[in-house]
Amino acid sequence: MSYFIRALGVTLSVTLLLFVFIIGFDFIGTEAAQSGFSSGTAFAFEHGDGAFYGEIFGRSFYADISFLEPAFSAVKSLSVFLPPVLKFVVRGIYFLF
User: pLDDT digit string (tens) for 8-31?
Assistant: First the structure.
């Protein structure tokens, strides 16, 4: 029973910490937007047309990942041989394409 209480406590504390980070970054983004710094987002990521766009604290970046698309399609077709957890990861990554 003590392991259950410990696991529950850790889960609740991690969940609370996650919400604090989300609220904190939202507050930072709002304050940054009002002061005219960047677009007001702390972290922003987008994917489309074989490219990955992002912005972290006002610094924008772009990465062309279209060359990875054939590799991920091959990995997805071979993912039937992987354990269930790795299948989930491969399908999640493949969802980006």
Answer: 999 999 999 998 988 887 787 777
For residue range 52-83, list pLDDT tens digits in order: 777 776 677 788 877 877 777 777 777 778 88
- Phi and psi at residue 58, to the nearest 5°: 90, -10
Question: Are 43 and 25 contacting, i.e. CB atoms less than 8 angstroms apart?
Answer: yes
CB 50 within 8 A of CB 66: yes
pTM of the model: 0.38
12 torsion bin: left (phi>0), alpha (psi -120 to 50), beta (else): alpha
Given the structure tokens 């990995």, which residue do they identify? 75
